[in-house]
Amino acid sequence: MEQNLSSYRIFYAVANNGNISRAAKELYISQPAISKSIQKLEENLDVKLFERSSRGVTLTPEGELLYKHVKSAFETLAIGEDKLRRSITLGLGNLTIGASSTLCKYVLLPYLKDFIKEYPHINISIACHSTTQTLRLLEEGKLDIGLIGRPENVKHTHSGSPIRSHLAGSKNIDFYPLQKIEDIFVATHDYLHNLQVRGVNRQQILQSSTLMLLDKENITRQYIDSYLQDYRILLHNIIEVSNMDLLIEMAKTSLGVGCVIRSFVKTELQAGILMEIPLKHPIPKREIGFAYSKNLKISKSLAHFIEFFEK
């Protein structure tokens, strides 16, 4: 564009008013300055834009053609300004959250229900990934915040409430614990009865059953593998699945013993659909919470989200 925006703004005002005097009053500049700007625009474009008369000015055919495009441009700018003002007034923004499909269903969505009530104009996107992938995407700045299970290399930086942590070896990730979860082994009454008929005692259930676990890339699986290794529990028959919902359904169909999170099968346990396998050494509880990169410039939307879960 060879002309500056002010030249087209003057052209637009004169065309709308059909009068240089009225355009000058609208723009708070002198009539001679208006006339000089129009003259310069016509010279630079090498075309006559207005017909002058004692009653004012009218667009030439060439002027009409230019006016259609200039009008569209200024209307687009006006729409943009209006959207910006509404965005500021309403608190519009965008927020991208990473979480596993399991944590998304059982923890994030119920949590977002209250957040959306308070901030209905923030657009939220959810990217379902494993904890390992979520942490990597946070480091790369591709997510605003992630809901994760605390990996073993996340250490608390100080005590108190709320507690923040960072990844060992990296001070770029803050971790805010929300709650503790407990991993347990479950099966149907029928499956446990069949093991009993075969002479399997309670202490040998895990070693003697088909054990259903999440895949090895999952933080939960890595945590359970460490537990099994610590207590020297050798497994002989394993089925790996990609998400906990599928694992729970497979346990309910008596395919084997499933390793699940207690709070996610609360209804099934209360109804007697699934039975908890008693363990000599219960699996230690672990934390889940929100993680975000301190290297990322915190947007207003993320600031609102952080303030919300720190309440």
How would you summarize this macromolecular structure in one to three sentences?
This protein has 311 residues and is α/β, with parallel strands linked by helices. It has helices at residues 5-17, 20-27, 31-45, 61-90, 101-118, 131-139, 189-197, 205-208, 219-230, 244-252, 266-271, 300-309; strands at 50-53, 56-59, 93-99, 122-128, 145-149, 154-156, 165-167, 173-181, 183-187, 210-214, 237-241, 257-261, 275-276, 286-293. A hairpin with an 8-residue loop joins β6 (154-156) and β7 (165-167).
Shape: rod-shaped
Radius of gyration: 33 Å
Find the count of extended strands (DSSP E, 2+ residues): 14
H-E string: HHHEEHEHEHEEEEEHHEHEHEHEEH
Total DSSP helices: 12
Instruction: Specify the structural class.
Output: alpha/beta
Structural account:
The longest helix is centred in the N-terminal third of the chain and has 30 residues, at 61-90. Helix 2 (20-27) crosses helix 3. The protein has helices at residues 5-17, 20-27, 31-45, 61-90, 101-118, 131-139, 189-197, 205-208, 219-230, 244-252, 266-271, 300-309, and strands at 50-53, 56-59, 93-99, 122-128, 145-149, 154-156, 165-167, 173-181, 183-187, 210-214, 237-241, 257-261, 275-276, 286-293. Strands 4-3-5-14-8-7-6 form a seven-stranded mixed sheet, with helices on both faces. The protein has a five-stranded mixed sheet with strand order 11-10-12-9-13, with helices on both faces. The chain has 311 residues and is α/β, with parallel strands linked by helices.
List keywords for this structure.
single chain, 311 residues, alpha/beta, seven-stranded mixed beta sheet, five-stranded mixed beta sheet, rod-shaped
